[in-house]
TrEMBL record:
This is WRKY domain-containing protein. It comes from Pisum sativum (Garden pea). Keywords: Coiled coil, DNA-binding, Nucleus, Transcription, Transcription regulation. It comes from the Eukaryota. Residues 18-49 are annotated as: Disordered. PROSITE patterns: WRKY.
Length: 430
DNA sequence: CGAGTTTGACCCGCGC
DNA sequence: GCGCGGGTCAAACTCG
């Protein structure tokens, strides 16, 4: 029933009063905004426009100043207010840069680890094959020994790299890291009345069990978009709050993904990468060991335990704790929806579900129940979560030199995250 | 009839 | 070795 609300979408941006500027058919669509662009703008007007696009109220507030034509005192006050606001925005921007830096770093580390692990495995396989050959054909062995010798040299070199790269790790912990690399899970909490979320992939239920400590059954699904796709997911309602649906993803897709499934796949990949990055450098997982996660308002970390044998990162989209965080951090009247929703303005400025707009137009201050409704609508909306992920991936893509030539592929993207090869899971809600 | 779901049986790891 | 719990299998069942 509520799905048809999702059929009609439009871009929306915030003014300083909390109003929305909604694009119509005559306005050119704004597809992407880059808060991290370090390249200087040649055109000042362009610069100003970019500030409007961020939805961070800078230019909108300036416009308000010129409109009002206040006396000097008011202007001074407004200027100081704007300066304070600007500082906050710069601070936020810096935080986001730090997050991005960590994600990029994690990606590089994981890519290097994967490469090394694969080469190491190849080395073992080659050694075994060589051993078999030694006991079988003498002549073939003589021929093969030349090429194997080359491979051995290469593998020795790689093995040396392994030692150097994991100098702070024993080989055992390195193997454990590899196990976690394969088994890392991303758990997403979202409020949803639906029994199961649809996330752009096709799933087949293959089991259901009653889990200990939870009256609600846990359902097991496997991806059926391709034969042999190893991706699994578990769906279970939260024992404490049955309106919260917990979806846990594990594994990497071995097939192209529909565009709708790609966006959150990148997000969960990034989350898994962050988790694995922190777990590879620290035996215990905490926000202290992964300080960049403190900037991610949704993320909480599960530590390794007997009940959770694999490292799991939880992306909490239920917003309850985020609300508290935001209210503590920004003791201003709740005039910006992103404050109400506990959403980073960077994410919020991308795109919003149309269904949420009527509730927040004209600078209304929504009542608490409305806040809950809107936050639930947003956290359960596929386009919002998709926009969130798209924002992350676009920034990562830009950081990597804009070499992503797949962006023009309309409906299908290659298997595996283009940014992070580790985990290509998907998520959105009905 | 094929695809998806249900559900009891089974497997496996872990702690005692 | 045994029991427990998580996860998977597969036959039976349902549905379009």
């Amino acid at each position: 029933m509520e799905n048809h609300h999702h059929n009609h979408r439009e871009f929306s941006f915030l003014t300083s009063s909390g109003d929305f500027i909604r694009s119509n058919n005559t306005d050119p669509p704004i597809k992407e905004m880059n808060l991290f662009s370090s390249s200087p703008n040649n055109n000042q007007q362009e610069d100003q426009d970019q500030h409007v696009n961020t939805g961070l109220n800078l230019t909108c507030a300036s416009a308000a100043v010129s409109k009002l034509e206040n006396p000097e005192n008011s202007e001074t006050e407004l200027m100081s207010t704007l300066q304070i606001e600007l500082r906050k925005v710069q601070e936020e921007n810096q935080n986001l840069r730090n997050v991005l830096e960590q994600i990029t770093k994690s990606y590089s580390q994981l890519q290097a680890q994967l490469f090394i692990a694969l080469q190491k495995q190849n080395h073992v396989d080659n050694m075994e094959a060589n051993h078999v050959m030694e006991s079988s054909e003498q002549k073939t062995m003589n021929d093969a020994s030349v090429s194997d010798g080359k491979q051995a040299c290469l593998s020795d070199h790689i093995a040396k790299d392994v030692v150097e790269c994991s100098s702070s790790h024993s080989s055992k912990t390195f193997e454990q890291d590899l196990t976690h690399f394969r088994k890392a899970r991303v758990s997403i909490r979202a409020r949803s009345e639906a029994p199961m979320i649809s996330d752009g992939c096709q799933w087949r239920k293959y089991g259901q069990k009653m889990a200990k400590g939870n009256p609600c059954p846990r359902a097991y699904y496997r991806c059926t978009m391709a034969v042999g796709c190893p991706v699994r997911k578990q769906v279970q309602r939260c024992a404490e709050d049955k309106t919260v649906l917990i979806t846990t993803y594990e594994g990497n897709h071995n097939h192209p993904l529909p565009q709708a499934a790609t966006a959150i796949a990148n997000t969960t990949s990034a989350a898994a990468a962050m988790l694995l990055s922190s777990s590879s450098t620290s035996s215990t997982l905490s926000k202290d060991s992964a300080p960049f996660l403190s900037s991610f308002p949704y993320a909480t970390i599960s530590t390794l335990s007997s009940s959770q044998p694999f490292p799991t990162i939880t992306l909490d989209l239920t917003n309850s704790h985020s609300l508290a965080m935001q209210e503590n951090r920004i003791p201003l009247p709740l005039q910006h929806p992103q404050q109400l929703l506990g959403v980073n303005p960077f994410f919020f400025s991308q795109k919003l579900p149309t269904m949420a707009l009527p509730l927040l137009q004209q600078g209304q201050r929504p009542p608490n129940s409305m806040v809950e409704s809107v936050s639930a609508a947003i956290s359960s909306d596929p386009n919002f979560t998709a926009a969130l992920a798209a924002a992350i991936s676009s920034i990562i893509g830009a950081q990597r030199g804009g070499d992503d030539n797949n962006s023009n592929n309309a409906s299908v993207v290659p298997a595996g995250s283009p940014q992070l090869p580790l985990s290509c899971t998907t998520f959105s809600t009905n």
